[in-house]
Design a protein that fits this description.
alpha+beta, four-stranded antiparallel sheet, 4 helices, 11 strands, disordered N terminus, binds FE2/S2 (inorganic) cluster
């Protein structure tokens, strides 16, 4: 595995940095700050990174930097998957089924356990916090956007769902992002 792995934790350094900037009321400069923090990783990073999903415990999230952007890989619980799959997305601001947000494994089926997303709020670019918000997914503290367990925007100013990066499964348990 290459690139820079951001240490996992409920209050990791990216979130703390983001929150500090937001508290100062300068949310628009948040992303450059995060990008700067990831600069060392950028210079080492190739165009893609490989991630071994088997090392991510159920109910936890891995955060990686890819091309200077945080990538979230969450191993969802059965409850989170059920919520994501059973949602009536027709009224959502950015309607997408959970399956549409996943990539098939080598068998051709999707594996709903693993959700891979760009961890950048689609409003003004802050880094959302996991297991927070009204829908048990991610919450952006900068201006209050709530994402569900599929990373879909449900409430708040963000216009679209958290983005899915280009990635593929190179085995049943390893993905390549980029
Ligand atoms: S940056 Fe405004 S809600 Fe996330």
């Amino acid at each position: 595995m290459q690139n820079e792995q951001v240490e996992e934790g409920r209050r990791d350094f990216i979130y703390l940095a983001t929150g500090a900037v937001a508290a100062a009321g300068v949310a628009s400069v948040t992303w450059p700050l995060v990008a700067q923090m990831g600069k060392a990783a950028d210079t080492r990073a190739a165009g893609s990174i490989e991630i071994d999903l088997a090392g991510i415990a159920e109910g936890s999230q891995l955060k990686m930097l890819w091309r200077g952007k945080p990538v979230f890989v969450r191993h969802r619980t059965p409850e989170e998957i059920a919520e994501a799959e059973n949602a009536d997305v027709s009224r959502y601001p950015d309607p997408q089924t959970d399956t549409e947000r996943l990539v098939p494994t080598p068998s051709g089926e999707v594996n709903p356990k693993y959700l891979v997303m760009i961890g950048v709020c689609t409003h003004f670019g802050c880094v959302p916090v996991g297991e927070q918000g009204d829908y048990g997914g991610w919450y952006c503290p900068c201006h209050g956007s709530h994402y569900d367990t599929s990373g879909r925007i449900r409430k708040g100013p963000a216009p679209t769902n958290l983005a899915i990066p280009p990635y593929e499964y190179i085995s049943d348990t390893v993905i390549r992002v980029g």
